[in-house]
Design brief:
The protein is an alpha+beta fold and 421 residues long. It contains 16 helices and 12 strands. The relative contact order is 0.17.
Length: 421
C-alpha cells in the first residue's frame, strides 16, 4: 500500500472481489468498495451515515480546517461562503484571465525546443488561481510551492500508514509546510493591509464573510486559502499534464483536437462561449480524468452501522471508494486502459451508472470548484493546441504518483513545435 497504492487497490479488487475487507489496525478495518452502486450508497444516497475519514487528519495538520478537511457546521458555513464564487455565471467571467495567463505562458515556449509540461502547467494554473481568486501573483513562486505541495502530499499518505514516523520518513516536511504557510500568510496579510473598496475576488468574500454566524477568524481565512492553493492548482495542472502526454501517444486524437480548435476559433483566442462548441476538446479532458482522476481515492468513516449490498459495515469502519478503480472497470468502460475520448461525445455515453465516473467526487461534498476546473482546462488546452504541437521527448517515461491527488511522478519532457499559421 505504501509503495504503490494504485497497484495494491487493483490487485485487491482482482483477487477478492467487489467488497474487500482489509484489517488495518487492531481497532480499524477498511472496506474497499468496487462498484458504482457502492459509491452511490456512500457518497449520495446515505451520505449522512459517513464522515470524512481519519485519513484526512494528516492533511488537516498542514492546510488546516478548510473545505477539503472540515466537517459539520464549519464545512457548511464555509461552503456557503465559497459556493457563489464558483457558480457557472461567476466562473465564466474568469475566462479572459485564464486565457491571458495561458497565452502569456505559451509565449515563453516560442524559443525553447523542449519544456517540462508538468512544471509548466503547475506554473500556469498557479498563476490563474493567484490572479482570479486572490488578486495576486503566485506564478513567480510556483516551482517552490509545487515542490512543497508534492512533499506535503507524500507526507499525508505516509502519516496515514505510519502516523508516528511521518516526519522522519519524509525529508524536508517541516520546510515544505513552512513554505506554504508563509505564502498564504503573505497573501492574506497584504490584502488586510490594502483592502479593496468593493469585493472583487474570493479573498475579499472570505475576509468580509457576511452571512450566518460571526466573521471568519484569521486562521479560518488562511485555512481556506491554503486549501484552494493546494486543490485549485494541483488538480488542474495534473489533468493538463496527463492530457498533453496522452495526446502525444495518440496522434489521431491530437489531430482531431487541432482541427476542432482551428475551426471553432478561426485564429483567435478562445472565449467562455466557445467551450460548449469544443466537444472533442472537452471529451479529451474527460477521458484524461477517467484514466488519471485527480481524486483517485475517497475515504469515509462510518458514523453508524450500515449495510452495503448485503455486507455489514460496523460503525467506526473506514470505507474506500476509488474513482481510479471505477474508471477502469471493464463492465462499464470497454478497453478500460485505452485512451478513447469518443466515450464522452454526445450519443456515446451509453447507460453507464451515474457513479461509474467520479472525477470530482459526488454528493453534497462534490468539488466546489468543478466548473472552474473544467472551464480552465478547456480554455488552456484550446489556447495551447491552437499554437503548438507537443510531443513527448524520446525515451520519456510518464509515471503516476498517488498522493492526496494523482499526479505525474517527476518531469514530463516534451518538444515544442509551432503550428503553421
Amino acid at each position: 500500500m505504501a509503495r504503490d497504492p494504485l497497484a495494491c487497490y487493483a490487485d485487491l479488487r482482482r483477487d477478492y472481489g467487489d467488497v474487500v475487507r482489509i484489517p488495518f489496525t487492531p481497532r480499524r478495518t477498511f472496506y474497499l468498495l468496487g462498484r458504482p452502486e457502492h459509491a452511490e450508497h456512500v457518497l449520495v444516497a446515505h451520505q449522512d451515515r459517513y464522515a470524512k475519514a481519519f485519513t484526512y487528519r494528516a492533511l488537516k495538520t498542514f492546510i488546516g480546517d478548510g473545505l477539503l478537511t472540515s466537517e459539520g457546521d464549519t464545512w457548511r458555513r464555509h461552503r456557503r461562503l465559497v459556493q457563489p464564487v464558483f457558480s457557472r455565471r461567476h466562473v465564466q467571467a474568469f475566462a479572459p484571465t485564464m486565457v491571458a495567463s495561458a497565452t502569456a505562458r505559451a509565449a515563453t515556449w516560442a524559443r525553447r525546443e523542449s519544456i517540462d509540461i508538468a512544471t509548466e502547467m503547475r506554473t500556469l494554473t498557479m498563476d490563474v488561481v493567484g490572479r482570479v481568486l486572490f488578486g495576486t501573483d503566485l506564478a513567480s513562486g510556483a516551482e517552490r510551492i509545487g515542490g512543497s505541495v508534492t512533499r506535503l502530499q507524500e507526507s499525508a499518505l505516509v502519516a496515514t500508514l505510519f502516523p508516528t514516523r511521518a516526519r522522519s520518513l519524509v525529508p524536508g516536511l517541516a520546510a515544505a509546510s513552512d513554505t506554504l504557510d508563509d505564502l498564504v500568510g503573505t497573501v492574506v496579510e497584504r490584502r488586510i493591509a490594502n483592502p479593496h473598496d468593493t469585493p472583487s475576488d474570493l479573498l475579499d468574500l472570505l475576509l468580509a464573510s457576511t452571512g450566518d454566524g460571526p466573521p471568519l477568524t484569521a486562521r479560518e481565512v488562511r485555512d481556506e486559502v491554503s486549501t484552494l492553493v493546494l486543490a485549485g492548482h494541483e488538480t488542474t495542472a495534473s489533468t493538463l499534464a496527463w492530457t498533453f502526454a496522452l495526446l502525444s501517444r495518440f496522434p489521431a486524437a491530437r489531430e482531431r483536437l487541432h482541427a476542432e480548435v482551428d475551426e471553432v476559433l478561426a485564429g483567435r483566442d478562445p472565449r467562455a462561449g466557445d467551450v460548449d462548441r469544443l466537444g472533442w476538446t472537452n471529451a479529451v479532458i474527460s477521458e484524461a480524468m477517467r484514466l488519471y482522476p485527480p481524486a483517485w481515492t475517497i475515504e469515509r468513516d462510518a458514523v453508524e452501522a450500515d449495510v452495503i449490498t448485503g455486507v455489514d459495515i460496523p460503525a467506526g469502519s473506514t470505507v474506500v471508494v476509488s474513482p481510479y478503480l471505477l474508471h477502469r472497470d471493464p463492465e462499464f468502460w470497454p478497453n478500460p486502459e485505452g485512451f478513447d475520448p469518443a466515450r464522452f461525445l454526445p450519443g456515446h455515453t451509453g447507460d453507464r451508472p451515474r457513479c461509474s465516473y467520479l472525477p470530482f467526487g459526488g454528493g453534497r461534498r462534490i468539488c466546489v470548484g468543478a466548473s472552474f476546473a473544467q472551464l480552465e482546462a478547456a480554455l488552456i488546452l484550446a489556447t495551447v493546441a491552437s499554437r503548438y504541437r507537443l510531443d513527448l521527448a524520446p525515451g520519456a517515461r510518464v509515471r503516476a504518483r498517488a498522493g492526496v491527488t494523482l499526479h505525474p511522478r517527476g518531469a514530463i519532457p516534451m518538444t515544442v513545435t509551432a503550428r503553421a499559421g
